[in-house]
Amino acid sequence: MAWDLLGKVLVSRSVDGTVAVRLTEVEAYLGPDDPACHTAGRKRTDRVQSMWGEAGRAYVYMIYGLHHCLNVVTVGEAGEAILLRGAVAVSGDELIRLRRGPTVSRKHLLNGPGKLCQALAVDRGDDGVDLCDSVGRLWIADDGTIPRPEAVEVSGRIGVDYAGDAAHWPLRFVWRPDGHAGIMGPGG
DNA sequence: TCTAGGATCGGCT
DNA sequence: GCCGATCCTAGAT
Question: What are phi and psi of A64, to 5 degrees?
Fold first, then answer.
């Protein structure tokens, strides 16, 4: 599930070099029964095709015409996926700064899905790639890091108010390695 | 072909 | 912390 992705290392390799980041913030989308999900109502357009593909693959889409968002497909036949919202740099710091801009503060480097994709140079071309395949351009590595449960904050999802109650479902997981996080139920 | 809306970001206060 | 730019995608005609 989404929780298991926290602490995992997302690696992106390109001609410019390699970037690795540790995932700290994810959001789950539960498929046809989730109004906030792109596969709500069993929708199956070209864009969401990879969400119905194999588990462990990437689903990359463009939002607001200018940003990309990277998801991990969890249950392909169910159209479920997990949106990667935030991370901290592990290696390739210079390349990340180069892509994000030299004036961007460390705090704002990877704290959003669009920023994450920019730092890792992820775009629609990466849609459908196998994230379990370490010889690929993009994959997820596991170095054994497991967040302490008390350091993980659970809350409602961001930017999906249009989905009504579903926006408040406790499907957003934020790992705060430095501090403590209270466990919050739906509604705060 | 046209229209409406969106899983965001960055600048300004 | 708040607000508006931006243009791709999907659905309707």
Answer: 55, 25
- Per-residue pLDDT of A45-88, as tens digits, reads 999 999 999 999 999 999 998 999 999 999 988 999 999 999 99
Where do the structural domains in chain A lie, given as residue ranges?
2-176
Report chain A's C-alpha Rg in angstroms.
16
Q: Is the CB of A108 under 7 A from strand B?
A: yes
Tell me the fold of A2-176. Answer: 3-methyladenine DNA Glycosylase; Chain A (3.10.300)
Q: How far is the CA of A73 from the C1' of B6 (A)?
A: 21
pLDDT at A187: 36
Identify each DSSP E strand in chain A by its residue range: 9-14, 17-29, 58-63, 67-75, 80-91, 138-141, 152-155, 172-175
Q: pTM of this prediction?
A: 0.93
Q: Which nucleotide lies nearest residue A157, CA to C1'? A: B7
Q: Nearest nucleotide by C1' from A67 CA?
A: B8
A69: which nucleotide lies closest, measuring CA to C1'? B7
